[in-house]
Design brief:
The structure holds two protein chains of two kinds. In chain A, 4% of the residues lie in helices and 34% in strands. Chain A is mainly beta. Chain A has one domain: Quinoprotein alcohol dehydrogenase-like superfamily (Methanol Dehydrogenase, Chain A, 8 Propeller), CATH 2.140.10. Classes of the chains: A mainly beta, B mainly alpha. Chains A and B meet through β28 and β29 of A and α1 and α4 of B.
């Protein structure tokens, strides 16, 4: 057998068991690099010694101006890019000069989805499995496209636009299940997650994140929550039957532990923002859920922010890592929450081992590790009867945006994440639920956090709950993180810089102005020429093109001023939609 | 997910609403009895939902002229400010109508025309790219109340130029 044939067989074997770890073979086939969601690649050609010579080698305009969250995939010799609405899928040939397209796929997507998207028309990426590129269209459909030909293999309607549901998250494929969920915490949806069959796209199971146990798939024989067990928590913790419009959407990142056979995902905020319309803990909004991928059974759940009164979604990355905590080896799950705490949990049981603030926090003083509950500051609770509550940190943009996933290096044993250093005042209104329209009701002006800077990129020791280093940035940082076997880390900034830093010290090694603010997540891969490259989207959006409305320029009938608290951002960036590749 | 209207409510705008469900109920009731007077509707075949499709770059189909019965009435404008929150308009257009996922309504620029009748039509019938048709929920009176509020919004002195020079 020739070496190439042997290699091909090996690649097929690895793919067959569904465990293509990025870096092992130079590909990037899953949104978060691997099932553990580490965003780590073992590729090590780029190092602190040579990173100063990193430079752009290629760029491509996607032709779309929405916020470019998410990340490309690299499978074999092809790079795949999904745009924000209208969700075009591009396939670039990495074997030819200039990376020409092999094909592009332009699905039919309803423009009504634009009006049902709370926070720009973003898409967080695709997943490669079984020869298919699988991703969500904004208007509530999942599609599978043949990775070679670009032909649509199946298309399944998973969500109801008319009910306020849109689909921005990246699917996770486990065995023959495609796991998907819907956004809509600002539209009072009845949040859910479901599994489609990989071959046909047919729905296999569907589970609510709130409501009766029968719909949550919380069965007496399988559901073992680490704290406060009980029947029908998804109903009994919602006064006034408010669970029916309680939100708890799924718009972030999923991970999977093959050993425990559990998928992990976070849910978004409870709706509406006036928490007095929904008395109780509001389980399982702002929570972490662990389910069996085969039948969807809920195995455990933990709520980071009971009775969410600040829009603290828990949809950020759930990173699986084997750590030593208090001298003991732990199968851990690490999560940086919008509420400002970084959590290290035992991912088998759901018990919290470490919880420490990674950004300024005023809504709670600490997390009680015995009960798992936050120790609240009574003065920072919100609701209609409390009027305008001032000085709440973090702001509802989060200590970190869930759209900005962290990375973990098994070499440095550190986690790398963007942060926002912002606080807010909060005044809610009583709102009416009108299907398919916003169910929000808040006025929440922002203020800079202590220190006069708006964000950081930092390294975190999750075993001790301690910051190791941080780079302060003049604007909130809204990109994901990447870290590699060369001990370099990568991130982008809202004002449009793409930066490479030393993963051990934070020292800036190189930077380049990429044309628009970065809200996407860098990836790395080994190209057919044998060299390591780094790819990232530029294209400001998500909340930022909306809050800093003066970064918009495409509509002469929609001319906005700057955000009061951040008057300078549009001086440095406008909307865009670019794919960049950097090399040595 | 996340949401924050980009600017706080203007001073003087009423605190956000307690009466919304009542108001909505009453308006929905009126809507059933009030024949909507769509501008130029006589010229529209039933299959055409948005006159913008017919009138792109051109002239709206002919028909009677719609007049806002409350034009310039500050009390109605204030009710409209409450309705703007109660009907979740601020969820997309931002507090004070300064734009969020949906366009700025306080910049004096209008995608589908800024005359009272045109703004009425946008709210009553909806528009492409996600503006719902609120006519059924609000009725004629409710839509005019919103139009009156939108006309009362203060506009920046210079919409076109934003300068950082010298800063």
């Amino acid at each position: 057998m020739s070496r190439i044939a042997l290699l091909a067989v090996l690649v097929c074997l690895v793919a067959a068991v569904g465990r293509v770890a990025a870096g092992d073979d130079g590909q990037w086939t899953m949104p978060s690099a691997d099932y553990s969601a580490t965003r780590y690649s073992a590729l090590a050609q780029i190092t602190p010694q040579n990173a100063r010579s990193l430079h752009p080698v290629w760029t491509f305009s996607t032709g779309v101006l929405g916020g470019h969250e998410g990340q490309p995939l690299v499978v074999g010799d092809t790079m795949y890019v999904v745009t924000p609405w209208p969700n075009v899928l591009y396939a670039f040939d990495l074997t030819r000069e200039g990376y020409p397209l092999r094909w592009k796929y332009r699905p039919e997507v309803s423009s009504n989805a634009i009006g049902v998207s709370c926070c720009d028309t973003v898409n967080r990426g695709a997943f490669y499995a079984d020869g298919k590129i699988i991703y969500n269209l904004l208007d509530g459909h999942t599609v599978a496209v043949d990775a070679r030909s670009g032909r649509e293999l199946w298309k399944t309607k998973i969500a109801e636009l008319g009910d306020g549901e849109t689909t921005t998250m990246a699917p996770l494929v486990v065995k023959d299940r495609v796991i998907v969920g819907a956004a809509g915490g600002e539209f009072g949806i009845y949040g859910w997650i479901k599994a489609l069959d990989l071959k046909t796209g047919q729905t296999v199971w569907s589970a609510r994140n709130l409501g009766p146990d029968s719909e949550v798939l919380a069965r007496a024989d399988t559901f073992r929550p680490p704290y406060e067990p009980g029947p029908d928590l998804g109903v009994r913790t919602w006064g006034n039957d408010s669970w029916r419009t309680g939100g708890a959407p799924v718009w972030g990142w999923l991970s999977y532990d093959p050993g425990l056979d559990l998928i992990y995902y976070g849910t978004g905020n409870a709706s509406p923002y006036n928490a007095e319309q929904r008395p109780g803990d509001n389980k399982w909004s702002a929570s972490l859920l662990a389910r069996r991928p085969g039948d969807g059974a809920l195995v455990w759940a933990y709520q980071f922010t009971p009775h969410d009164s600040w829009d603290y979604d828990a949809t950020g990355a759930m990173i699986l890592a084997d750590l030593t905590v208090g001298g003991r080896p732990v199968k851990a799950l690490v999560h940086f929450d919008k509420n400002g705490f970084a959590y290290t949990l035992d991912r088998a049981s759901g018990r919290v081992l470490v919880a420490a603030p990674f950004a300024p926090v005023t809504w709670a003083r600490s997390v009680d590790l015995t009960t798992g509950r936050p120790v609240l500051d009574p003065a920072k609770q919100t609701g209609l009867s409390r009027g305008k509550v001032q000085g709440i940190c973090p702001s509802l943009e989060g200590g970190v945006s869930p759209a900005s996933p962290a990375a973990y290096s098994p070499r440095t044993h550190l986690f790398y994440t963007a942060t926002n250093n912002m606080c807010m005042d909060y005044a809610v209104a009583r709102v009416t639920h009108l299907k398919g329209t916003p169910f929000v009701g808040v006025d929440s002006p922002y203020t800079p956090g202590p220190g006069g800077y708006f964000g950081t990129f930092m390294a975190w020791d999750a075993a001790s709950g301690r910051k190791v280093w941080e780079n302060r940035e003049p604007f909130p940082v809204w990109s994901g993180a990447l870290v590699t076997g060369g001990d370099v880390a990568f991130y982008g900034t809202l004002d449009g810089w793409f930066k490479t830093v030393n993963a051990r010290t934070g020292e800036l090694l190189s930077k380049f102005k990429v044309g628009s603010g970065v809200v996407g997540n860098p990836i790395t891969y080994r190209a057919p020429d044998g060299r390591q490259y780094v790819a990232v989207y530029a294209g400001i959006g998500g909340d930022w093109a909306l809050i800093s409305g003066d970064t918009l320029a495409a509509d002469p009938t929609d001319v906005r001023g700057p955000a009061e608290f951040l008057k300078d951002l549009a001086r440095h960036t406008s909307q865009g939609g670019l794919v960049w590749i950097f090399g040595l | 997910m996340r949401r924050r209207p980009p600017r706080p409510l203007r001073p003087g705008a009423p605190a956000l609403l307690a009466l919304a469900p009542l108001a909505c109920g009453a308006l929905a009731c009126c809507a059933r009895h009030t024949a909507p007077p769509p501008p130029g509707s006589a010229a529209l075949p039933p299959a055409v939902r948005y006159e913008a499709h017919l009138a792109a770059g051109g002239v709206l189909p002919g028909g009677g002229v719609l007049r806002n019965p409350h034009a310039g009435d500050p009390a109605v404008a204030q009710s409209g400010a409450q309705l703007f929150v109660a009907m979740n308009c601020d969820g997309c257009h931002g507090a004070g109508g300064v734009g969020f996922t949906a366009p700025d309504l306080a910049d004096g620029r209008w995608r589908y025309g800024g005359a009272d009748a045109e703004v009425f039509s946008s709210i009553y019938y909806g528009r492409p790219k996600g503006m719902p048709a609120f006519g059924g929920a609000l009725g004629t009176e409710g839509v005019w109340t919103l139009v009156t509020y939108l006309r009362s919004l203060p506009m920046p002195a210079d919409v076109a130029t934003e300068s950082w020079d010298g800063k």
